[in-house]
Amino acid sequence: MRSITFETDEFYHVFNRGNNKRPIFLDEFDLLRFLQSMREFNTVEPIGSIYENFFRKKELGDSIFKQQKLVDLVCYCLNPNHFHLTVKQLVDDGVRRFMHRVGTGFTKYFNQKYKTSGALFQGRYKALHVDSNEYLLHLSAYVNLNNRVHGALGSSTSKLSKTSWDEYTNHERGQTKDRDLCNKEIILAQFRNPAGYREFAESSLLTMTIKERKDTERILKLGS
Asked: Which own/partner contact pairs does 183-186 have at CB distance under 8 Å and 24+ positions apart?
């Protein structure tokens, strides 16, 4: 049984890694496919498969991206053998439904592409409740800069990683690129400008490295 209960309008740190620490992203297209999964499966109304949704998008056009979401994606980091997401649940059971669709869909894609079978991820995804705004701000820095975190801890940093850092820092607050995944204003509205957030995030990186690493490794070892 999962020890955490997901509540609507609350924030969560969600993460998992490959089964037996195996890589889950072997090339850039795998990263893009996971990002596509996060976008397309984040709807209250089921879409079936991404393949089926391709034809639905041709019929409905851009309106398909305006459907009610299960979660707000605040920030993300995809690393070669694990991922981190910060999400806000928007509807009852939203986090569970979102993560089930993404995990199942990506596993099917991966197994078909690489001619493998069985579980891709190490059991059920793990989750921590974000119980304060201070925690949320520091967590956003940890997730946005997670590929740097592993470098700071002495492990190698692969080119096969992608984060939402560019969404936060590459254009002015209030400007949203059409295909951005994240609701950045949850975080950026608390800073004068993106440069202020950049300074905050980079300065908090080391302390969050220590705290978040302890939290995530503890839960991964427990397998909760």
From this structure: 183/72, 183/73, 183/74, 183/88, 184/74, 184/75, 186/72, 186/74, 186/88, 186/136
Residues paired with 15 in a beta bridge:
84, 126
As assigned by CATH, the class of the 11-222 domain is alpha beta
pLDDT in tens, 154-205: 444 467 889 999 999 876 555 555 568 999 999 999 999 999 999 999 888 7
**Could you tell me which residues come within 8 angstroms of residue 135 by beta carbon, excluding any fewer than 6 positions away?**
none
Q: Name residue, tokens 């793990």.
A: 126
- pTM, whole model, 2 decimals? 0.83
Residue 179: which residues within 8 A CB-CB, separation 6 or more?
none
Give the residue from 224, 222, 22 showing the smallest Cα distance to 120: 22
